[in-house]
Amino acid sequence: MKSDQATRLSELRRQSDLSLREVEQWLRSAGESVGVTYSQLGKYEKNPAIKIKMSVLRKLAELYHTTPEYIETGVRTGKESFNSMPTRIIITNNQQKAQMLMVPHKAEAGYRKSFNDEEYLGTLPTYSLPGFEHGNFRMFEVAGTSMTPDFQPGDIVICEHVERPEEIVDGTVYVIVTTEGICLKRVTNAVAKRGYLIIESDNPEFKPDLIMPSEVLEMWSYRKKLTV
Fold first, then answer.
1. Angle, nearest 10°, between helix axes 5-15 and 54-64?
2. Which of 51, 127, 132, 221 has minimal Cβ neighbours within 10 Å of its Cβ?
Protein backbone atom coordinates (compact mmCIF):
# COMPACT_ATOMS: atom_id res chain seq x y z
CA MET A 1 0.00 0.00 0.00
CA LYS A 2 1.30 3.48 -0.82
CA SER A 3 2.53 5.58 2.05
CA ASP A 4 1.76 9.28 2.03
CA GLN A 5 0.58 11.83 4.56
CA ALA A 6 -3.11 11.20 3.92
CA THR A 7 -2.71 7.42 4.14
CA ARG A 8 -0.75 7.66 7.38
CA LEU A 9 -3.33 9.93 9.00
CA SER A 10 -6.15 7.60 8.00
CA GLU A 11 -4.25 4.56 9.28
CA LEU A 12 -3.33 6.23 12.59
CA ARG A 13 -6.95 7.13 13.19
CA ARG A 14 -8.15 3.63 12.31
CA GLN A 15 -5.63 2.05 14.67
CA SER A 16 -6.80 4.41 17.41
CA ASP A 17 -10.41 3.32 16.81
CA LEU A 18 -11.56 6.94 16.44
CA SER A 19 -14.06 8.55 14.10
CA LEU A 20 -13.36 11.86 12.37
CA ARG A 21 -15.96 13.44 14.63
CA GLU A 22 -14.17 12.14 17.72
CA VAL A 23 -10.86 13.52 16.44
CA GLU A 24 -12.52 16.90 15.85
CA GLN A 25 -13.98 16.89 19.37
CA TRP A 26 -10.61 15.96 20.89
CA LEU A 27 -8.85 18.77 19.04
CA ARG A 28 -11.45 21.25 20.29
CA SER A 29 -11.07 20.11 23.89
CA ALA A 30 -7.29 19.55 24.00
CA GLY A 31 -6.10 22.79 25.50
CA GLU A 32 -5.57 25.58 22.97
CA SER A 33 -7.87 24.96 20.03
CA VAL A 34 -6.22 24.67 16.62
CA GLY A 35 -9.47 25.44 14.82
CA VAL A 36 -9.71 22.37 12.58
CA THR A 37 -13.15 21.39 11.32
CA TYR A 38 -14.59 17.97 10.60
CA SER A 39 -14.49 18.78 6.88
CA GLN A 40 -10.81 19.75 7.02
CA LEU A 41 -9.89 16.55 8.83
CA GLY A 42 -11.59 14.57 6.09
CA LYS A 43 -9.62 16.43 3.43
CA TYR A 44 -6.35 15.71 5.27
CA GLU A 45 -7.04 11.97 4.89
CA LYS A 46 -7.91 12.22 1.19
CA ASN A 47 -5.46 14.75 -0.22
CA PRO A 48 -1.76 14.06 0.51
CA ALA A 49 -0.75 17.36 -1.09
CA ILE A 50 -2.36 19.50 1.63
CA LYS A 51 0.18 21.36 3.74
CA ILE A 52 -0.98 20.98 7.34
CA LYS A 53 -0.01 23.70 9.79
CA MET A 54 2.63 22.62 12.31
CA SER A 55 0.34 23.53 15.22
CA VAL A 56 -2.22 21.06 13.86
CA LEU A 57 0.40 18.40 13.15
CA ARG A 58 1.64 18.63 16.74
CA LYS A 59 -1.87 18.13 18.11
CA LEU A 60 -2.56 15.20 15.79
CA ALA A 61 0.79 13.67 16.70
CA GLU A 62 -0.07 14.04 20.38
CA LEU A 63 -3.42 12.34 19.86
CA TYR A 64 -1.90 9.47 17.88
CA HIS A 65 1.21 9.11 20.08
CA THR A 66 3.58 9.74 17.20
CA THR A 67 5.58 12.67 15.82
CA PRO A 68 4.81 15.41 13.27
CA GLU A 69 7.78 14.08 11.26
CA TYR A 70 6.18 10.66 10.93
CA ILE A 71 2.85 12.11 9.79
CA GLU A 72 4.54 14.30 7.18
CA THR A 73 7.33 12.06 5.91
CA GLY A 74 6.74 8.54 7.19
CA VAL A 75 10.15 8.59 8.90
CA ARG A 76 10.10 7.14 12.38
CA THR A 77 12.42 8.66 14.95
CA GLY A 78 12.05 5.99 17.64
CA LYS A 79 10.08 8.44 19.80
CA GLU A 80 6.67 7.20 18.68
CA SER A 81 4.56 4.78 20.66
CA PHE A 82 3.66 1.61 18.79
CA ASN A 83 0.11 2.73 18.46
CA SER A 84 -2.28 5.16 20.04
CA MET A 85 -2.32 3.17 23.25
CA PRO A 86 -5.64 3.22 25.08
CA THR A 87 -5.71 4.27 28.71
CA ARG A 88 -4.75 1.21 30.70
CA ILE A 89 -7.78 -0.27 32.37
CA ILE A 90 -7.30 -1.43 35.96
CA ILE A 91 -9.66 -4.17 37.12
CA THR A 92 -10.40 -4.30 40.87
CA ASN A 93 -12.17 -6.78 43.10
CA ASN A 94 -14.79 -6.02 45.75
CA GLN A 95 -12.05 -4.92 48.16
CA GLN A 96 -10.78 -2.47 45.51
CA LYS A 97 -7.50 -4.36 45.14
CA ALA A 98 -5.88 -4.29 41.70
CA GLN A 99 -6.28 -7.50 39.72
CA MET A 100 -4.17 -8.73 36.79
CA LEU A 101 -6.07 -9.70 33.69
CA MET A 102 -5.18 -13.07 32.20
CA VAL A 103 -5.48 -13.61 28.45
CA PRO A 104 -5.98 -17.32 27.66
CA HIS A 105 -4.83 -18.55 24.26
CA LYS A 106 -8.43 -19.31 23.28
CA ALA A 107 -9.31 -15.63 23.88
CA GLU A 108 -6.60 -14.31 21.51
CA ALA A 109 -8.89 -13.28 18.66
CA GLY A 110 -11.36 -11.56 20.94
CA TYR A 111 -8.61 -9.79 22.84
CA ARG A 112 -6.98 -8.40 19.69
CA LYS A 113 -10.35 -7.03 18.60
CA SER A 114 -11.38 -5.59 21.97
CA PHE A 115 -8.13 -4.95 23.88
CA ASN A 116 -9.29 -1.41 24.74
CA ASP A 117 -12.91 -2.32 25.52
CA GLU A 118 -13.51 -2.20 29.27
CA GLU A 119 -16.67 -4.31 29.04
CA TYR A 120 -14.85 -7.07 27.16
CA LEU A 121 -11.82 -6.99 29.44
CA GLY A 122 -14.17 -7.43 32.39
CA THR A 123 -15.04 -10.91 31.05
CA LEU A 124 -11.42 -12.15 31.26
CA PRO A 125 -10.16 -14.02 34.35
CA THR A 126 -8.26 -11.95 36.92
CA TYR A 127 -5.65 -12.80 39.55
CA SER A 128 -3.82 -11.04 42.35
CA LEU A 129 -0.22 -12.11 43.02
CA PRO A 130 2.30 -10.87 45.60
CA GLY A 131 4.88 -8.53 44.09
CA PHE A 132 2.60 -7.36 41.30
CA GLU A 133 0.26 -5.10 43.22
CA HIS A 134 1.68 -1.89 41.77
CA GLY A 135 2.26 -1.35 38.07
CA ASN A 136 0.60 -2.18 34.80
CA PHE A 137 0.78 -5.97 34.49
CA ARG A 138 -1.02 -8.54 32.38
CA MET A 139 -0.86 -12.33 32.11
CA PHE A 140 -0.76 -14.28 28.84
CA GLU A 141 -0.97 -18.01 28.14
CA VAL A 142 1.90 -19.31 26.02
CA ALA A 143 0.92 -21.11 22.82
CA GLY A 144 3.15 -23.01 20.41
CA THR A 145 6.74 -24.19 20.73
CA SER A 146 8.71 -21.27 19.27
CA MET A 147 10.20 -20.36 22.67
CA THR A 148 11.01 -23.83 23.99
CA PRO A 149 12.65 -25.08 26.09
CA ASP A 150 12.26 -22.14 28.52
CA PHE A 151 8.62 -21.47 27.65
CA GLN A 152 6.25 -24.37 27.10
CA PRO A 153 2.68 -24.34 25.73
CA GLY A 154 0.33 -23.65 28.62
CA ASP A 155 2.83 -21.66 30.67
CA ILE A 156 1.56 -18.32 31.96
CA VAL A 157 3.80 -15.28 31.59
CA ILE A 158 3.37 -12.13 33.67
CA CYS A 159 4.33 -9.03 31.70
CA GLU A 160 4.54 -5.28 32.21
CA HIS A 161 3.21 -2.81 29.67
CA VAL A 162 5.64 -1.13 27.25
CA GLU A 163 4.64 2.22 25.78
CA ARG A 164 7.38 3.16 23.31
CA PRO A 165 10.12 1.53 21.22
CA GLU A 166 12.93 3.21 23.18
CA GLU A 167 11.86 1.20 26.24
CA ILE A 168 12.84 -2.04 24.50
CA VAL A 169 15.93 -3.82 25.81
CA ASP A 170 17.35 -5.70 22.83
CA GLY A 171 17.35 -9.47 23.21
CA THR A 172 14.71 -9.39 25.96
CA VAL A 173 11.49 -11.43 25.84
CA TYR A 174 8.22 -9.62 25.09
CA VAL A 175 4.60 -10.48 24.41
CA ILE A 176 3.61 -8.64 21.23
CA VAL A 177 -0.06 -8.14 20.42
CA THR A 178 -0.36 -7.41 16.71
CA THR A 179 -3.12 -7.09 14.18
CA GLU A 180 -2.37 -10.69 13.13
CA GLY A 181 -1.87 -12.46 16.45
CA ILE A 182 -0.19 -12.61 19.86
CA CYS A 183 3.35 -13.92 20.13
CA LEU A 184 6.12 -14.36 22.71
CA LYS A 185 9.51 -13.45 21.21
CA ARG A 186 12.90 -11.92 21.82
CA VAL A 187 12.94 -8.46 20.30
CA THR A 188 15.56 -6.16 18.80
CA ASN A 189 14.53 -2.56 18.26
CA ALA A 190 15.48 -1.43 14.76
CA VAL A 191 12.67 1.11 14.47
CA ALA A 192 14.82 4.26 14.45
CA LYS A 193 17.35 2.95 11.90
CA ARG A 194 15.30 0.62 9.73
CA GLY A 195 11.66 1.17 10.64
CA TYR A 196 10.86 -2.26 12.08
CA LEU A 197 11.24 -4.65 15.02
CA ILE A 198 13.22 -7.88 14.69
CA ILE A 199 11.65 -10.82 16.51
CA GLU A 200 13.44 -14.09 17.22
CA SER A 201 12.53 -17.44 18.75
CA ASP A 202 14.57 -19.48 21.21
CA ASN A 203 13.68 -22.61 19.26
CA PRO A 204 16.17 -22.73 16.31
CA GLU A 205 13.53 -24.34 14.11
CA PHE A 206 11.84 -20.92 13.83
CA LYS A 207 13.46 -18.23 11.70
CA PRO A 208 13.70 -14.55 12.75
CA ASP A 209 10.99 -12.27 11.43
CA LEU A 210 10.16 -8.56 11.16
CA ILE A 211 7.22 -6.59 12.53
CA MET A 212 6.30 -3.07 11.50
CA PRO A 213 5.46 -0.76 14.43
CA SER A 214 2.12 0.08 12.79
CA GLU A 215 1.09 -3.57 13.25
CA VAL A 216 1.68 -3.51 17.02
CA LEU A 217 -1.43 -3.02 19.14
CA GLU A 218 0.25 -3.61 22.50
CA MET A 219 3.63 -4.72 23.79
CA TRP A 220 4.39 -6.31 27.17
CA SER A 221 7.78 -7.00 28.75
CA TYR A 222 8.22 -10.44 30.31
CA ARG A 223 8.66 -10.44 34.11
CA LYS A 224 7.80 -13.89 35.50
CA LYS A 225 6.68 -17.34 34.38
CA LEU A 226 4.09 -19.56 36.04
CA THR A 227 4.14 -23.22 35.06
CA VAL A 228 0.80 -24.95 35.42
1. 30
2. 51
